[in-house]
Write a structure and sequence with these properties.
The strands form four sheets. The chain has an eight-stranded antiparallel β-sheet with strand order 3-2-4-1-10-9-11-14, with helices on one face. A six-stranded antiparallel β-sheet has the order 5-6-7-8-12-13. The model has no long low-confidence stretch (mean pLDDT 94). Strand 7 and strand 8 form a beta hairpin. It is of the alpha/beta class. 54% of the residues are buried. Helix 10 runs parallel beside helix 14 and helix 15 runs parallel beside helix 19. Bound molecules: 6-O-phosphono-alpha-D-glucopyranose. 6-O-phosphono-alpha-D-glucopyranose binds next to helix 10.
């Protein structure tokens, strides 16, 4: 989710690059850097932290004037947010400077092969692997574009690369596979960048590169080929957005953009999870398999939306590992003298990695001898640093205060972790793990299908602007989905919304339901007959009290139709994975209703993105 830019033209390169990076800082702010070519030599400046740190560095030690360069603002994935891990990365011979966005899945194998040939690495990033490989290819082939194409053919995963060669002044080369890259076509100058926000102050003529394409820009030419060097077509268009809309990718809110980014965020979270033997792996492991096999209790600790992801994790982990699993609010856990010891495994989930209650809870658990595995979106933050193992969600920065892609990627990471534990403990066969892994791989496409139906959900939301109380029901993993749907509505629309376990309906909640109450019901897949039929009974019960039912059910589930005032079709998916697709309409609904009410969706009143006080 990093932001990258390349420039070739008459303007002073460093200031064009810094301006571009400023408009892409929402894509990541762990570090920033630029490289420019000056008299056949590459000059680099890079700094950990926000762009302001790089600006201060460049004011203290300015780079000489140049007319070609590349820049990067980083959202750390492999390697912590340090000066050394900041981009651009150089090849050992100093000829290449390269910036990268994405995840190189086979970085370990390429790194080992290059090290064998004597290449020395200076960072822990997967990105430096691309820089060093490009350097080696360039030395062998002599032409920068040819070398980049060879490099791309060797890399696996998702990546956008932008590079310059000290001995080839005026040329910037770039390539994309599954990560974004647009060309900005100026008058006597050209740009490449992760998105148009980076160059919108200079030109509105853009070209969107296709998959697996390489582009070479000079001040007055743009040449596009595929990875084999054959000329390729890309889509030219004119950007009509203003700068602030461009940063939001054309959406009115960052949150809406983040909802629509979920297919990509989920796909990125699933990338690079297997080693050479096909075994599932975590990102950082400071805990042995023996210890994981000794575990006799699992406790999931989290706050807010992450807690609801934890509730889903409990169902999956117990089902796959047969280890008793509790899930608890981090703020409650610490103050009740919980039973935790050396055989307890804590799983902590935190988008920010800085939530104080969560941090305190894991510190307490570790003091009692427990091991902690963190699921986190923020590389280098405190919670993963203080944990024994980490699995990072690769959602990219989440700017909307209400979590959306943070949540669905947490769910995906929970499934991966559940499968990992089942693999280590031998509670699932390899083919069972593979079956779930294959289904996980389908999720980006299934979430996209739900997003394609957004207009119907928006219409539903706009029809409910006068309503002040909402109820959400679900069973099994549909219950945390209902809770999260209600939370989204509270956070954004400031309305009374409650989620209940559908089975609890008759024990109280049904008393608040009348003809004015819309009731959202998450229906389990029809394949789980018992569970499904129970929820259908609950549907009938609320309908008998006059409530309006909004039913989220598998497409083709004809059994629910007679009981639904509005029906939201979900793609077919197994029960445990259903929250990933079921939450998306509820996010869209809350976002649209809050927009219709005139609320600030990105920064709802009274809320903070990261709660660093207890
Ligand atoms: C705040 C945010 C929520 C988030 C919760 C936990 O309340 O507004 O969106 O779910 O903190 O944050 P974490 O960063 O630990 O996931």
């Amino acid at each position: 989710m990093c932001g990258i830019i390349g420039y070739s033209g008459p303007q002073e390169a460093v200031s064009v690059l810094l301006d571009g990076l400023a408009h892409m800082e929402y894509r990541g702010y762990d570090s920033a850097g630029v490289a420019v070519e000056v008299d056949g030599v590459l000059r680099v400046a890079k700094k950990a932290g926000k762009l302001a740190n790089l600006r201060a560095e460049l004011e203290a030690r300015p780079l000489p004037p140049s007319h070609v360069g590349i820049g990067h603002t980083r959202w750390a994935t492999h390697g912590g947010p340090t000066d050394l891990n900041a981009h651009p990365h150089m090849s050992s011979d100093g000829r290449i400077a390269l910036v990268h966005n994405g995840i190189v899945e086979n970085h370990a194998a390429i790194r080992a092969a290059l090290e064998e040939r004597g290449v020395e690495f200076t960072s822990q990033t997967d990105s430096e692997v691309a820089a060093q490989l490009l350097g080696v290819e360039l030395a062998a082939r002599g032409d920068l574009a040819e070398a980049l194409r060879a490099c791309c053919r060797a890399l696996q995963g998702a990546f956008t690369l932008v590079a310059i060669d000290a001995q080839d002044p005026g040329r910037v080369v770039a390539a994309r596979r599954s990560s974004p890259l647009v060309v900005g076509v100026g008058d006597g100058e050209n740009f490449v960048a992760s998105d148009v926000a980076a160059f919108i102050n200079h030109t509105r003529d853009a070209i969107e590169l296709g998959q697996d394409q390489v582009v070479v820009i000079t001040p007055d030419s743009v040449e596009i080929t595929d990875f084999d060097g054959a000329p390729a077509q890309a889509r030219p268009y004119r950007v009509e957005w203003d700068a602030s809309t461009a940063e939001k990718g054309g959406y009115d809110w960052f949150m809406r953009k983040e909802i629509f980014e979920q297919p990509r965020a989920i796909a990125d979270t699933l990338l690079g999870r297997h080693d050479e033997r096909g075994q599932l792996t975590l990102d950082e492991v400071r805990i042995g398999p023996e210890e994981l096999r000794r575990v006799d209790k699992i406790v999931v600790l989290a706050c807010g939306t992450a807690f609801y992801a934890g509730m889903v994790a409990k169902y999956a982990i117990e089902h796959w590992t047969r280890v008793p699993c509790e899930v608890e609010l981090a703020s409650e856990f610490r103050y009740r003298d919980p039973i935790v010891d050396g055989r307890t495994l804590c799983i902590t989930i935190s988008q920010s990695g800085e939530t104080m209650d969560t941090l305190m809870a894991i510190r307490y658990a570790r003091e009692q001898g427990a091991k902690v595995i963190a699921i986190c979106n923020t590389n280098g933050s405190t919670i993963p640093r203080e944990s024994d193992a980490v699995i990072y969600t690769h959602a990219g920065p989440e700017i909307g205060v209400a979590s959306t892609k943070g949540f669905t990627t947490q769910l995906v990471a929970c499934y991966l972790l559940g499968l990992f534990l089942a693999q280590v403990r031998g509670t699932l066969y390899g083919d069972e793990i593979q079956r779930v892994t294959d289904e996980l791989a389908m999720l980006p496409e299934l979430v996209q299908q739900v997003l394609d139906g957004a207009d119907d959900i928006y219409a539903l939301a706009r029809g409910m602007v006068h309503i002040e109380d909402f109820v959400f029901l679900g069973r099994h993993v549909g219950y945390p989905a209902a809770l999260e749907g209600a939370l989204k509505l509270k956070e954004l629309a400031y309305l009374h919304a409650e989620g209940f376990a559908a089975g609890e309906l008759k024990h109280g909640p049904i008393a608040i339901i009348d003809a004015r109450t819309p009731v959202f019901v998450v229906v389990p897949p029809a394949g789980r007959e018992q569970l499904h039929n129970k929820v259908v009974s609950n549907l009938q019960e609320v309908r008998a009290r006059g409530a309006k039912t909004i039913v989220l059910a598998e497409r083709g589930d004809t059994g629910v139709r007679p009981h639904a005032d509005a029906l939201i079709g979900l793609p077919r998916v197994s029960t445990l994975l259903q929250p990933v697709v079921a939450i998306v309409p509820l996010q869209l609904f809350a976002c649209e209703l809050a927009t219709a009410l005139g609320n600030d969706v990105d920064q709802p009143r009274n809320l903070a993105k990261s709660v660093t006080v207890e």
